[in-house]
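B., you asked whether I could sanity-check this one before it goes into the benchmark set. Here's the sequence:
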Amino acid sequence: MADQLTLAFDTSAAHCAAALVWGDTVLAVQVEEMAKGQAERLMPLLEEVLAGAGKTWGDLDRLGVGTGPGNFTGIRIAVSAARGLALSLGIPAIGVSSLEGMAFAPAQTGPVMAVLDARQGNVYCQIFNQGGAAHAAPSLCSKMDIPSGSPQGTLQIIGHNSQDIAARLGATSVDTAAHDTITAIARIAAQRTPDGSRPAPLYLRPADAAPPRDPAPVIL
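And here's what the prediction gave me:
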């Protein structure tokens, strides 16, 4: 399955990101930082990524989509787009969490904890074994109450405030970027066997009490 032409995209954070891969070959990757406007920018961005690699929608074998955790509206934008495109193109869409993408991105030499800023003094985090398998379920916790239990080996911290967290837990820190994460999401989606399910948002906390200014896109 790793030789699938896979287009992956993510809008779960303050960016609009996409990557196109063929097996282990990255054909194109594009990340644009933006706090809003992902709904309007996503489809043109995907068209640009495909055109830049000389590919069309009809060439795709599958889609990958970042499912969060992160911004509620942003997650729904990407997931609803993936479901709609998969239905219209007749190809599978594979959901991959941002935490898994982050952990997959660096060259692992041991267990990895991926950390995302959840605001209000909290973080999303998840520990993965060397090789990428999840050691525990993703969780939402206080920045000062991050779990330190891990598989055997020196724990690597990747993501938000990684150096400070690593120093506190006696671990090492690893740098990554949005380009690495979206590319990893595409590679994971290319390798994963479709199970017939549709990608679903990964929510680890309830929505904020204040409703969004604009209505969220409808999940198909």
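One thing to flag: Strands lie at 5-10, 15-22, 25-33, 62-66, 93-96, 112-119, 122-128, 139-142, 156-159, 172-174. Otherwise nothing jumped out at me.
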